[in-house]
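Students often ask why inverse folding is considered easier than folding. One informal answer: many sequences map to the same fold, so there is more than one right answer. In these notes we will look at a single instance of the problem. The structure comes first.
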């Protein structure tokens, strides 16, 4: 680690996304466990997650250097080489996500889109129905429910894997991934370039756009039938 330099890698929008997503995921989980009383809060957190994920997808295309997908999404060969320990990636190395972590991020984003999207059509319990629940046939309602249940379990698994990886890198390789996501500065090899701007105005514009899209999606849902909670 003596050869490491502190490099500004993670911009403020990426760090905001990371910690906001963690809070919203925990909030959605807890509010769901509360039951009917927590359903409105659960819906709020679910819509917030969808907004954040859409924003991160946009930021993966238009964000700063190390936030872009092109900087960390590699082919299978690079992933297997990394997992096999054939390169120096585990210690002090390049900036950003490693090849295996890049695919884990894509998997998590995909699962979160499926989770939040299925929540809009999930239901079946009195007063706990997504805004689009009443527009779908029973087949698609059941499918949304199954996706929502399965997606949550898969996300818990990915979260556990993520936490285990953070602990592994701290204990085995001395890499402080948590502090890097707090300060934005990562231990890297000498000469690795750092970001020169956080792109805040661009990030805010994209966030506002994504929030407006989610709001429009929820607002466009027709009200539930007057006579019905679909008991029969």
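Output (designed amino acids):
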């Amino acid at each position: 680690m003596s050869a490491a330099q502190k490099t500004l890698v993670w911009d403020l929008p990426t760090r905001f996304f990371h910690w906001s997503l963690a809070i919203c995921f925990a909030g959605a989980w807890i509010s769901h466990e509360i039951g009917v009383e927590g359903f409105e809060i659960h819906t709020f957190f679910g819509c917030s997650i969808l907004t954040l994920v859409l924003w991160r997808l946009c930021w993966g295309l238009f964000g700063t250097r190390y936030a872009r997908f092109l900087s960390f999404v590699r082919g299978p060969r690079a992933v297997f080489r990394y997992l096999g320990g054939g390169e120096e990636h585990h210690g002090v190395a390049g900036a950003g996500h490693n090849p295996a972590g890049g695919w884990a991020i894509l998997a998590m984003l995909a699962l979160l889109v499926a989770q939040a999207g299925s929540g809009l059509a999930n239901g079946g319990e009195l007063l706990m129905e997504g805004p689009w629940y009443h527009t779908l046939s029973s087949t698609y309602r059941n499918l949304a429910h199954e996706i929502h249940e399965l997606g949550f379990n898969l996300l818990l698994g990915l979260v556990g894997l993520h936490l285990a990886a953070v602990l592994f890198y701290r204990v085995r390789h001395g890499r402080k991934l948590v502090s890097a996501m707090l300060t934005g500065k990562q231990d890297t090899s000498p000469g690795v370039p750092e970001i020169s701007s956080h792109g805040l105005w661009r990030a805010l514009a994209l966030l506002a756009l994504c929030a407006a899209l989610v709001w429009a999606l929820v607002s466009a849902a027709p009200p539930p039938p007057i006579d019905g909670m679909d008991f029969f």
